[in-house]
């Protein structure tokens, strides 16, 4: 949810059908509740399915996918409930700390989400050019690179977002509480830049992969991991779908931070609530592009956590789709 003063017009100075506003609020809260429940269950399912398979979690892409699942669980279980409880923050002091916590958490998680997706796309491109870090790095060096790639978006967000919020101009919403006047710069940094780069790099990856196929390379013959070999090269369409979903979910709310002209206040609020709905739906919608990864899809189909394998046995046949783990 966006708290920017630029986003919300003054209802006291303009005519607006309050009954429509109430209906939009009810519809949004109901949908948000569905997203919180279903997003939590689906991302937890995906997280456990990957984390319990030694073969799957050894891939760099799947390590980033685990990080994304953790992120979406935080959005569902922390950010979502925090945003829906403003009505219960009656005390101004409590309300102010409440809204500051929500602002920081929302922007931090947006930052991590978009830059992790950008990292996944970059890793895919590096795989296409056969960059093999395992040739140059020791075992320790490979572990440090892996940890650094995964943690960099999280660490950068914890430093960048609070610093930008503290340094931005403020507007009073109560006598004792102020919020950043505009999130335009923050949205540029945590949404527009990484998603735009991800879209451009994805197009480059598609063109690069097409050229390689024309040159006689096959999917199974390509190097597919920076640090260790994988079963096959990923399909570019998976990254196209993931970047497309991210753009649909986050770009509208980011653009609303800029002065966009609307013919009426009613149109502005309808667009605003569409943007809110798409933004809150990201933990749910982003689950589905990952099903396009063949190894992930086969793991989810065959994973039965209630069946315990024999000690020391874990077999995954991605090509045939039979997995025991």
Automatic annotation (TrEMBL):
Keyword Transmembrane carried by entry: yes
Q: Which UniProt keywords apply?
A: Membrane, Transmembrane, Transmembrane helix
For whether the record's keyword set contains Transferase, the answer is no
Source superkingdom: Eukaryota
Query: Where is the chain membrane-spanning?
Result: 30-52, 64-82, 115-137, 144-166, 186-207, 239-258, 270-293
Q: What is this protein called?
A: G-protein coupled receptors family 1 profile domain-containing protein
Native source organism of the sequence = Biomphalaria pfeifferi (Bloodfluke planorb)
């Amino acid at each position: 949810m966006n708290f920017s003063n630029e986003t919300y017009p003054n209802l006291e100075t303009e005519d607006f059908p309050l009954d429509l506003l109430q209906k939009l609020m009810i519809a949004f809260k109901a949908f948000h509740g569905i997203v919180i429940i279903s997003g939590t269950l689906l991302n937890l399912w995906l997280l456990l399915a990957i984390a319990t398979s030694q073969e799957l979690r050894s891939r760099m892409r799947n390590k980033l996918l685990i990080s994304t699942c953790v992120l979406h669980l935080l959005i569902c279980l922390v950010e979502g409930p925090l945003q829906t409880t403003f009505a219960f923050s009656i005390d101004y002091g409590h309300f102010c700390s409440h809204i500051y916590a929500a602002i920081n958490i929302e922007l931090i998680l947006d930052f991590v989400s978009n830059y992790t997706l950008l990292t996944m796309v970059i890793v895919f491109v590096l795989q296409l050019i056969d960059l093999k870090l395992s040739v140059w790095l020791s075992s320790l060096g490979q572990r440090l690179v892996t940890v650094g790639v995964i943690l960099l978006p999280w660490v950068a967000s914890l430093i960048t977002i609070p610093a930008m919020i503290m340094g931005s101009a403020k507007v009073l919403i109560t006598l004792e509480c102020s919020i950043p006047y505009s999130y335009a710069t923050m949205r540029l940094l945590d949404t527009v830049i990484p998603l735009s780069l991800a879209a451009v790099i994805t197009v480059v990856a598609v063109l690069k992969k097409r050229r390689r196929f024309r040159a006689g390379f096959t999917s199974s013959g390509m190097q597919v991991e920076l640090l260790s070999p994988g079963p096959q090269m990923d399909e570019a369409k998976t990254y196209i779908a993931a970047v497309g979903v991210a753009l649909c979910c986050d770009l509208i709310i980011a653009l609303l931070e800029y002065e966009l002209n609307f013919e009426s206040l009613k149109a502005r609020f309808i667009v605003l609530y569409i943007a809110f709905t798409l933004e809150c739906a990201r933990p749910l919608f982003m689950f589905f592009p990952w099903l396009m990864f063949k190894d992930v899809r086969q793991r989810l189909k065959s994973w039965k956590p209630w069946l315990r394998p024999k000690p020391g046995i874990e077999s995954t046949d991605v090509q045939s789709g039979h997995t025991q783990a």
